[in-house]
From TrEMBL:
SUPFAM superfamilies assigned: UDP-Glycosyltransferase/glycogen phosphorylase
Upper classification of the organism: Eukaryota, Fungi, Dikarya, Ascomycota, Pezizomycotina
UniProtKB keywords: Transferase
GO molecular function: hexosyltransferase activity; UDP-glycosyltransferase activity
Name under which the protein is recorded: UDP-glucuronosyltransferase 2A3
Source organism of this protein record: Apodospora peruviana
Signal peptide extent: none
InterPro entries in alphabetical order: EryCIII-like_C (IPR010610), UDP_glucos_trans (IPR002213)
Domain Erythromycin biosynthesis protein CIII-like C-terminal: 334-442
Source organism superkingdom: Eukaryota
Length: 460
């Protein structure tokens, strides 16, 4: 272990970020790296249980999922749309930069004091903006990392002439006229959504002693680090011919032995008995329709309830509903009329159900999509919040899903989408091709190689 660089691993405080970063943290530790994680106070036990040292973010930047409504009550008073979105980006991701930066500096300083002469590399999760000032000259007290590698666990949002503006889920341009049209849309979107976040970003950089270059703040996580590793295979993201040479793909998250997988409060209890007898064994060869809205959206009328309804009369089908949270329950009127072909679990790790599923019905969360293709399972996707519209569009472009292009599809659209995936082999074939591509990568080797190259001074 003494010969390896020391790792500072940053993570945005939220379950959708912590889950994949926990997997990377454990893989690094199993490889013999000494890892110091940086995130909010709430997640300290999670990372320490993996074997990480920990530095908690203090002050304004110390929050987690369940704090958002109480920490920023004024957000709820804003009308849904551009104003509310802009507020969220400014306060949840940009205004927290000084506190994140201070925590990362503390982690670096502690490591350099304890291990003089050993290089320290920051692995910076892409939505965590607090490490970026280092890459533009901010280093109070002279403490800075010996290298930085961005870690992508969300759909790539890097601006490109080869893609539409990120967010609405528009397809890549196919003509010079469309490229010009998209450039105009991007300019409009930046003015509408990002004026305040961009101004705050530039202001904070100046306050921290960093250089402000006028570039788009949300391209910086891809462009500023010495390297950037997107934790998925290339075929599940739009190609970008103008991406820098420092942008690489790692193929997916590292594969861990089952006994080493991070275990959260949701995964500690026994699996349902029907999982083995009806799903894994599945002696009658039934189609398995798995539906889950993730761990953030709990309005089950969006996808879960309509899926139950449209599959009610489908012969030779089992519907597995995962609610995404311990203690969650379907409404009583749904439970009282639950069809016999439906099985419900409060929480179930994706890796326990996806290998046996015929189709995954989801809202396009990045983690769910990557899990699904890693098991060769095609999807029906319906999402329009956060980055989900974009991920739904990308997955359909890759051939792995039917995109319903809304967060609340009609029953007819949902039924047609599920039937199409179950009957058209092209979706399964596309997923298996991506699955094979993922299998050709060894993600932890990719990460380790890039760490070594950055420390050796090879930045490009």
């Amino acid at each position: 272990m003494a010969t390896k660089p020391l790792i500072v691993l940053t993570c945005t405080p939220g379950k959708g970020h912590v889950n994949p970063i926990s997997t990377l943290a454990k893989a690094l530790i199993l490889e013999g790296y000494q890892v110091t994680a940086v995130s909010s106070t709430h997640y300290q036990p999670t990372f320490e249980a993996l074997g990480c040292s920990y530095v908690a973010i203090q002050g304004y930047g110390d929050y987690w999922d369940d704090d958002r409504e109480t920490k920023w009550p004024e957000r709820a008073a804003l009308p849904p749309g551009p104003e509310q979105f802009s507020f969220t980006i400014e306060h949840s991701f940009v205004r927290v930069i000084p506190d994140q930066f201070a925590a990362v500096q503390k982690a670096i300083a502690t490591l350099k004091e304890r291990h003089p002469g050993r290089p320290v590399v920051v692995l910076n999760e892409s939505a965590f903006l607090g490490s970026l000032p280092f890459m533009r000259g901010a280093a109070r007290g002279g403490m800075k990392p010996d290298g930085m590698i961005g870690i992508g666990i969300n759909p790539v949002s890097l601006s490109s002439v080869d893609t539409a503006p990120f967010g609405p889920g528009l397809p890549p341009p196919t003509t010079p006229e469309q490229v010009a049209e998209y450039a105009g849309i991007k300019k409009h979107m930046e003015a509408l959504f990002y004026t305040k976040p961009q101004a705050a970003f530039d202001e904070i950089l100046r306050d921290l002693g960093a250089t402000v270059d006028g570039g788009f703040a949300f391209d910086a996580p891809y462009l500023w680090p010495d390297r950037f590793l997107q934790m998925c295979p290339p075929s599940i993201m739009y190609p970008r011919s103008d991406a820098p040479d420092t942008f690489r793909y790692a193929g997916g998250l590292p594969r861990l032995p089952k006994e080493a997988k991070p275990r959260s409060e949701e995964t500690v209890s026994d699996l349902p008995t029907w999982l083995q007898t009806e799903i894994v064994d599945n002696k009658t060869g039934k189609d398995i329709v798995f539906v889950c809205q993730g761990t953030v959206i709990f309005d089950y009328d969006a996808l879960v309830v309509p899926t139950i309804e449209v599959m009610r009369e489908r012969p030779n089908t089992l519907v597995v509903v995962v609610l995404g949270k311990r203690g969650a329950a379907l409404p009583e009127h749904v439970l009282s009329t639950l069809p016999e072909n439906v099985r419900v679990a409060e929480y179930l790790p994706y890796d326990e159900i996806l290998p046996y599923s015929s189709v995954f019905v989801g809202n396009g969360g990045y983690g769910g999509v990557i899990h699904s293709v890693s098991h060769g399972t095609p999807m029906v996707l319906a999402g329009d919040t956060e980055d989900k519209a974009e991920m739904c569009a990308i997955t359909a472009w890759a051939g792995a899903a039917v995109n319903l292009k809304t967060g609340r599809p009609t029953k007819e659209a949902l039924r047609d989408g599920i039937e199409e995936v179950l009957t058209e082999t092209k979706y399964k074939d596309a997923c298996r091709k991506i699955q094979a591509e993922m299998g050709s990568f060894d993600p932890i080797r990719v990460v380790a190689q890039n760490i070594n190259e950055v420390v050796a001074g090879f930045k490009g």
